[in-house]
């Protein structure tokens, strides 16, 4: 029970990585506020968790919505201990700068970058007076290897790491830590939807297999060793707890060393390159 009676917000908590984190936080004793635009899924997650969970509709690209999300947590529980900025989107195509769709680029930036910045802003306004708090931002291991993911997504996740490090410095004097988690590919619903759009003819099982093969501990065909949402949730608990009390300004890579090997992202990179050629 590493987070006993802590109050945590998880954006993008209705499915995938965010859902796993919300469930894991609650299992460790936290009160969880799930923010998402997927109302039905978010409510199901909170119902499954029980009375310690609350769902709030929130589009993180809308500052008023983010402020309301944070205010709801504080009004309901009296404080905010953990801000998990997890909500994010990708965009189909656009791997090559020549194919850049500026409208898609702006949408990705508004959610993945502005959404994180807004989450930190409004969380910090409540954490600073109390002199404590933890901010965790979901980035991606595309920050460790170029040319793997589309342009806007890659740029946005680099920006998330920059925001995290800056917040760690600015807020550290008030007892607030800020860190980023950078997972490798996981066959979440969002990943599967994206990959099926990016690769014509790709079915759901194929997309899941690609994600599983892209991030394994042994770079083989053993899909049982592939990264899972549970792995990310466990990392989030570590960063949110006192076990990491002196960890701040850190980007925690969860990719089985795939970004530091010449085999990094073979499955994804080759397939996307073929699809775009």
UniProtKB/TrEMBL annotation:
Gene3D superfamilies: NAD(P)-binding Rossmann-like Domain. It holds the Pfam family adh_short_C2. PANTHER family: SHORT-CHAIN DEHYDROGENASE REDUCTASE, SHORT-CHAIN DEHYDROGENASE_REDUCTASE FAMILY PROTEIN. Belongs to the short-chain dehydrogenases/reductases (SDR) family. This is Uncharacterized protein.
